[in-house]
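Key idea: predict the complex, not the pieces.
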Amino acid sequence: MKFNKEQIQILQDIIYSRRDVRGHNFLDKKIPKDDLEKILLSASHAPSVGYSQPWKFILIDDESIKKELRENFDIENEKAKKIFKNKKTYEDLKLEGIMEAPLNIAVFYEYDDEAVLGMTSQKKMGEYSVVCAVQNMWLMARALGIGLGWISILDEKKVLKTLNAPKNTKLIAYLALGYVDKFYDEPELKTLKWNDEKTLDECVLKNRWQ
Amino acid sequence: MKFNKEQIQILQDIIYSRRDVRGHNFLDKKIPKDDLEKILLSASHAPSVGYSQPWKFILIDDESIKKELRENFDIENEKAKKIFKNKKTYEDLKLEGIMEAPLNIAVFYEYDDEAVLGMTSQKKMGEYSVVCAVQNMWLMARALGIGLGWISILDEKKVLKTLNAPKNTKLIAYLALGYVDKFYDEPELKTLKWNDEKTLDECVLKNRWQ
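Result:
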């Protein structure tokens, strides 16, 4: 399969317009089965080390579970507020949309003791495969007009407990998904000048560090 | 920006036809500046925790550096062969294209002591941001007809030494890139029945583990 200029441009547009959505504007509209399947199939077509496909996706719409996650976030975010007490902006930021989003997805890495091709020198590759799956989901969600937010201000151990996760698993990502009426033109933290955009010149080196 | 059915289909086609390319069929053709820039800009538009953009990309075409990496691979792969000695297929697999690929890219996570928004509860988020960038690169490379292979059978410490990487960095991915005449229809390890494809039913749960 070959892709032409217009098709390459579409991929670029999707990549450039993907945003972290934190629940300002989730619409009250369920994600239909078809769209959800497209998102999950994007995940399962991600690269995985040794074709191990070491992912598990927990689809969460139970209100009591979401509430527990939201409480987990609140406790962790109180700690974070103290860390950023000199940066006034932090307090005003909305950093999660757990309750507002019609669907949450917890994404796990699941492993066993068997040797995995490609993981013999770098154990991290299993986890990294699952992160690639999350990025595929994010892009497909964006193309479908579905906002996705990755919520990382959570105590992982508590998440595992809430979801009754077995010992041989690791939480990779906790996601909130829902349709939105619009996506921001640029990352909110860029607009707010929390950090400056880096140029390629700042990020790219030739052959080795000097 | 809204995407229509055809555009969503194009993203799905790119995601589904992306392959890990291990140097069977890299063409002897340099990657022009424009295409390389598209790949790097896809990376720099990845999500990053707290808009930290904690990535560094080392573009490698120096033959002596590539040779050192190739030797690193050979040593690690000898160890791996012993681990998989009961699986005849392993010996026959070509698992890297370091020398054949006109361009290698080492992708690093670079950190400092400053607190990062979104990393206060989960330190891993910095690394994971860089993995998302790699997945964006992979998809853009595929759209451009450029094969990309992620080589993980490498001793990370030696890679850092070869590339003179500073202490506050971690190797995320070592990639080999080049144009190819064709991409396999499905993952090679699927074709070879190294592992079976998992169905969504095997990977998706509702609300929690039972």
